[in-house]
């Protein structure tokens, strides 16, 4: 949450967010999702969706000067509620997409601001007999829980056809439960990026690192220039899980990552010890984190970004780790993405650089012609292209023109996202039971916050993580 985007991880961070939920057990392939390594310069031509030459089934969208590519039914007099935890610019931009759906169909759509975790919010709405028609769910586990509780409805033929045309198999698979398609992954996130203040790097003579050792060298170079190397939004525990996941995926490899994601190996495993010890190389380094551990634990994600790009060439920190959605927060400063604010992929800790992905899927809770039409629209390049042009957004839809993204950095991220296919891993904590991977002040979030405060206690942190994980996975909560 998604992220100022959602409180997902924060008041404005949605994608990515206190947005974790339910128990999620699935095969390693189904746990895969596409995300992108920004540094890869790929000669990829963006594909535009083909338009239709005639109206079908009374549809209002067809080949037209506006470039509509998806056929939608007439829905005059119909009304819909769409729930998501998005706030700020993210919510505003999504409402622009919904307005286009209204224009094309005649339906009336109301955005419902949900609290995090959204699965709990939906439970209360359903118990009160007032579920929204469609909800944007930020993790595979939440989709599974919605299906298990018989809240979610399968996608119809039109939405399935749009998915098949516009999405890789991997992005389709993570929206499935029991072989049936329930989710349309409307929004993606690349959570393997480190943003940096270009002026700080220039003054320090620092270079973009490619390996973890290079990152430590770069951090020392920045520190020696008089600027604290890292800003960490530790008040939002999800940022710390993202740090861990990137180190762990690169160092332990995809197979171990899948096993730990499903709790098939314990958090006391030596691979977890190795990852935590590696993280301590930054978290435990005196004066490497703005405000120290205590300051970081009082810094929410949006502030961790903005304080990296304010203060001229003497900001509170030179670098901040997080996904492509950080651009929304950078936009709140005077810094310009691609000039003042630059980005590099999370460095390789092991043999390959990690690519950790997240996303938000549209799920139908009240099956109707209007709800199915909205899911179909969100699966189309038409909807995603509208939001792509507004910035701070990344789509896994391969038929969104790359030129729709508003700057070169975002275009590069989007281009490599599409080229990445199915070969990457979805956010580990988003796959975990909510009690472990998605609740502020509890489970993995709390355990890693405690580790940030005392990064010498690797064994104690492992023991606590395993205790909390065993309880959560055992109960499925």
From TrEMBL:
SUPFAM superfamilies cross-referenced by the UniProt entry: Periplasmic binding protein-like II (SSF53850)
The entry's keywords: Transport
Family matches, as InterPro entries: Bact_solute-bd_prot1, SBP
Positions of the UniProt region annotated as Disordered: 1-32, 49-72
UniProt feature, compositional bias: Basic residues: 1-28
Tagged with keyword Protein transport: no
Family (UniProt): Belongs to the bacterial solute-binding protein 1 family.
Protein name: Sugar ABC transporter substrate-binding protein
